[in-house]
Automatic annotation (TrEMBL):
Superkingdom field: Bacteria
Pfam short name (any one): FAD_binding_3
Gene Ontology molecular function: any one: monooxygenase activity
FAD-binding domain span: 5-179
UniProt cross-references to Gene3D superfamilies, sorted A to Z: FAD/NAD(P)-binding domain
Protein name in UniProt: FAD-dependent monooxygenase
Keyword Mitochondrion: no
Species the sequence originates in: Streptomyces siderophoricus
Length: 398
């Protein structure tokens, strides 16, 4: 089998499927490839912050997510030491709710949206290699079932995750990276209050996120150095962390039951890879990954996709325009994500400083500042705009 497309997208989850949706709607012939068989779950914190939900609305996909019965999240609480913040992120394009749908639902919705937009979707299709003309990527060698074939494309999009095969085949260098900071365990629990809650203590972070069918994701983060010690009893570690960090939540869990197996990871990498090259581009976790503790992965994948498609526009088949567009995407991607990346590393250190606690105490006394803080967490408020002159004056006076 040999065929030619404008774009081949490798990976059909939260970066790949939206890329296929938008490029197909732009009039390009798109092939979307996925190694797994849909529907299928994957490791995920599930949360789509307000900027990501606003993009789902813009793409016309939000009604399908809402139709799954996933509860809207319009309040969040954050407890650390003697400080408790309760509030909500600002609205983005009229959207003030977050959502946390199960991934086997969300990913299937996005893949179907790609098909509905005109893309061709093939799951259970593994990219074995890329094809080249000199240093330019020209397509991919694919295995579907027992059949191997080559597809050609003007652009190959690597949306195949942190361990991206596309990135490996083009030898995309890591531009910079930081050490792993946390490991994490989570599962789903019944009969808990449908609330988004965060609890922090030295060396520990616990959160709950409501999702489909009355289930709540309960997760705990630990210092990376403890992973070898904890991996023999991840569930015990999770329950002990909840007891220590959020005892009220632990008591509530006694009234429910565990709904799914335990999920865990010690591979919380923090890096930016080179995003583009001749005939190829990386989006989502393939090009940039950070600790999941701030649950920004899905939202930031959506933002990258929209940026990429905006940069490409109608210039895919003009080699010079495409090259400029990809380079523009690479620069703007880094500018868009770097501050959130640094803030995530600070959170993942699991050690709130005295200065941070003083700041949180000030914020807790103001509904406006609390919502601004949660807006920074969601990405609705740019992090470099969070520290207003008024807040700096308050800090200086303490």
């Amino acid at each position: 089998m040999n065929d030619t497309y404008d774009v081949v997208v490798v990976g059909a989850r939260v970066a790949g499927s939206p890329t296929a949706v938008l490029l197909a709607r732009a009039g390009y012939r798109v092939l979307l490839l996925e190694r797994g068989r849909f529907p299928r779950d994957t490791l995920s914190t599930l949360l789509i912050h307000q900027p990501g939900v606003a993009l789902l609305k813009r793409w016309g996909v939000l009604p399908r997510v809402v139709a799954t019965g996933c509860p809207p999240i319009d309040r969040v609480s954050y407890t650390v030491a003697d400080v408790r913040l309760e509030g909500c992120s600002w609205a983005v394009d009229g959207v003030r709710t977050a959502f946390a749908p199960r991934r086997y639902l969300l990913d299937s919705i996005l893949a179907q949206a790609a098909v509905d937009s005109g893309a061709e979707f093939r799951d259970e299709s593994t990219v074995l290699d890329l094809t080249f003309d000199g240093d330019r990527v020209t397509g991919a060698r694919v295995r579907s079932g027992g059949t191997e074939y080559t597809v050609r494309a003007t652009l190959v999009v690597g949306a195949d995750g942190m361990r991206s095969r596309v990135a490996a085949k083009v030898d995309a260098p890591v531009e910079f990276e930081d050490p792993r900071l946390t490991c994490a365990y989570y599962t789903y629990w019944s009969d808990l209050p449908q609330r988004f809650r965060l609890h922090e203590a030295p060396g520990s972070w616990v959160g709950t996120i409501p999702t489909n069918e009355g289930a709540t994701l309960v997760g705990a983060y630990f210092p990376q150095r403890r992973f070898g010690q904890l991996r023999g009893d991840g569930l015990g570690a999770l329950l002990a962390a909840v007891q220590h960090t959020a005892p009220e939540l632990r008591e509530q869990m006694d009234g429910g039951r565990m709904l799914d197996r335990l999920h865990g990871t010690g591979d919380q990498r923090n890096f930016f890879r080179k995003a583009v090259g001749p005939g190829w581009v990386l989006v989502g976790d393939a090009g940039h990954h950070k600790d999941s503790i701030t649950a920004r992965g899905i939202t930031d994948a959506f933002r990258q996709v929209q940026l990429l498609v905006d940069c490409i526009g109608d210039g895919l088949h003009d080699p010079q325009r495409l090259s400029r567009a990809l380079n523009r995407f690479a620069l703007q991607r880094n500018d868009m994500l770097i501050t959130g990346y640094r803030n995530t590393l600070t959170t993942a250190a699991l050690a709130a400083s005295k200065h941070q606690l003083e700041l949180l105490r000030l914020i807790a006394g103001s509904t406006e500042l609390t919502d601004r803080y949660f807006s920074m967490m969601s990405g609705a408020c740019p992090a470099d705009e969070f520290l207003t002159p008024e807040l700096l004056d308050l800090l200086a006076s303490t």
